[in-house]
Prior knowledge:
- 60% of the residues lie in helices and 7% in strands.
- The protein is mainly alpha-helical and 118 residues long.
- It folds into 2 domains: 1-68, no CATH class; 83-118.
Amino acid sequence: MLPRLLDPENEQDYVWADSAYSGEGFEELLNLGGFESLIHEKGARNNPLSDAAKESNRVKSSIRACAEHVFGFMTMCMGGKLTRKIGVERMEAWWGLKNLTFNFLRYLQRSCKLAAIA
């Protein structure tokens, strides 16, 4: 599955993933494609992660959470990610409106928090 997800035309050469994608096979595949791995490190039984690895995973998680919360919100509160539209133009318009709606909702959420603090 991972080779189909890697697009050499991406602007960034970073790959973000959880520890399920860790391992030498994945690392070799990423190196072959010229990607930089930002995959979480995985501990094992009787071989826990070092403090440096835990800190590295924490930093990676904080960045990944920003993107994953968007999809979680769309799935739980905005009717999911599944759509059935005919034509690329309609699909792009639908996703554009859904993203715009998310941005409006996020703005309202943030502005209400700021008003409550002030």
